[in-house]
Amino acid sequence: MGGEGDSGYQLNFPDAPKLELDELIDQLVSRAESVRRAQGRLRNLLRATQSVSGDLSLERILRRIIESARELVGSRYAALGVIGNDHHLEQFIYVGIDDQSATKIGHLPEGKGLLGALISDPRPIRLDRMSDDPRSAGFPADHPPMESFLGVPIRIRDEVYGNLYLTDSVNGRFSAEDEELLSALASAAGTAINNARLYREAQQEHRWSEASAEVQAQLLSSTGEDPLRTIARRAIDVSGSDLVTVSLVDPTDEAVMVEAAFGQGAEDLLGRRFPLNETIASQVIESGEPLLLDNPLAGGPLPIANLALIMDAGPLIVVPLRDEERTRGALTLIRRRGRTGFTDADVRMASGFAAHASVALQLADAREFAEQMVMLEERDRIARDLHDHVIQELFSVGLGLESIAGHLEGSPDVARRIIGKVDEIDRAIRRIRTSIFTLQGGLISTPGEALRNRILQIAGEVTPLLGFAPAVSFTGLVDSVVDASLLDDVIACVRESLTNVRRHAHASSVSIDVQLKGTKLTIRVADDGIGMPKDPERRSGVANLATRAEKRGGSLRITSRDGGGTLLEWTASVNGRS
């Protein structure tokens, strides 16, 4: 035994309990660190949720969602794709790629490869390497390289609104925890998007209601803007469309005429007439039901003929303009390709606007009919006075002058001058007869007078577009032309001629002379405009008129007038080929 103070004596403890204690302390520290880290990420999730829920502007909310998602899970790139009605991406909002790089990449994704996989099967996708997945379609030229991928759907109730896409985790790979956090954010984002959509729809509903009130007030007013122009103007203001047209079915029920148009290409469409069966409006007019399309140029009939030449059309809505008995026309709203598509709510609101406009049109028609009856009665009285008094007196004067000319055998020059004045009186009588028919036109409905009545009707339709009224005259028994197909050819000739005058001639006057001599019918349309273009861009309408004339044994001739202007002369045989 050693004595007290023996320095060689030491206390020794077993090593095993000490190691277990160190491990427990390390585990506690690690778990505490995990809890702290999880608490921090939950705080980040809460902040992200508050960020996307604190606004009612849909555009700002979508931008905040992808920015919050990128920050929440730590990724270099983030994007949000909005799914359209055609199950492709109609919007693709991104962060992490600068504008210069985006320009080099080119068009935005349409929803193929991995992006499309998430659309067709809306369940989260998490990959360490995108290139290892067989669904990956690769990247276009100038696209930055990307490795890890995480995608989750954004749902609004049972509807998949879009998807969140994140690539290149700053940690090298996305974890299961990242997926859970992003799914939670997507759920909150769906609620925020739904609230923003409801708010937008409420605002939009209010704007459509204001537009309906303005249209009804204008339709019931006797002055101011043309009601159809008001309908088109207010529709393009409210709907955010790039082109709006109002088309009405013509009296034959075989064609539609664009009565009002606003937006891109409106000038090329205004006042034009298109066969009903060549437009998608026929489907709406026949069914009376609205139509929503995401890509009208994908094939099949177009909503408006020549639309592909006017604009790169994207989403569109066609809604009917109905009265109690039939569909009288259609309102068409069009956006350019690449813009946000219309929704079912847009269709519903546009249909409500069109219904209000249709009711107002009926009221305006009833008021106009009552006013026309009063006016026509007065016109009928004036027409009788012209026929019974003015024309008879002119006949008497003409006969008297012819008699005088017959007694001037020694003065042939004077006789010729008198006969010339007699011819002028005859032309004046023909114009007065045309005026009489114009005054009585609304009261006459005999089949034989269809040609005269239709030509006068067309002249009246284009008067607001020309800025002046065409002068119309008839020579011969034109009322005897009752062949329906010939009538269509004549109407096409007059309408195409006046349309060309409006679009190209810059004229201040135009005359239409219709003459039937024997079996030969001649239409002459003369204007005082700038003359024919040396290299006209579009000759399809003129070529069509030439074909119509040749099929009827006639011809088409377009010449420049002395002193300026253009003369179109179209001839046909009333008995078919001559």
Concise summary:
The chain is an alpha+beta fold. 49% of the residues lie in helices and 20% in strands. Helix 1 runs antiparallel to helix 2, helix 5 runs antiparallel to helix 6 (227-239) and helix 5 runs parallel beside helix 10.
Blueprint of the fold:
Layout: H1 15-53, H2 58-73, E1 75-83, E2 89-95, H3 99-105, H4 113-120, E3 125-127, E4 149-156, E5 159-169, H5 176-219, H6 227-239, E6 243-249, E7 255-263, H7 266-269, E8 273-275, H8 281-287, E9 291-293, H9 307-310, E10 313-322, E11 327-336, H10 344-406, H11 412-440, H12 450-466, E12 471-475, H13 484-505, E13 510-517, E14 520-527, H14 540-551, E15 555-560, E16 566-573
Parallel strand pairs: 12-13
Antiparallel strand pairs: 1-2, 1-5, 3-4, 4-5, 6-7, 6-11, 7-8, 9-10, 10-11, 13-14, 14-16, 15-16
Helix pairs in contact: 1-2, 1-5, 2-5, 5-6, 5-10, 6-10, 10-11, 12-13, 13-14
Task: Report on this structure.
By secondary structure, the protein is an alpha+beta fold. The chain has four domains: about 170 residues, Beta-Lactamase; about 120 residues, 2-Layer Sandwich (Beta-Lactamase); about 90 residues; about 130 residues, Heat Shock Protein 90, CATH 3.30.565.10. Helices cover about 50% and strands about 20% of the residues. The chain has 14 helices and 16 strands. A hairpin with a 2-residue loop joins strand 4 and strand 5. The termini are far apart. About 30% of the residues are buried.
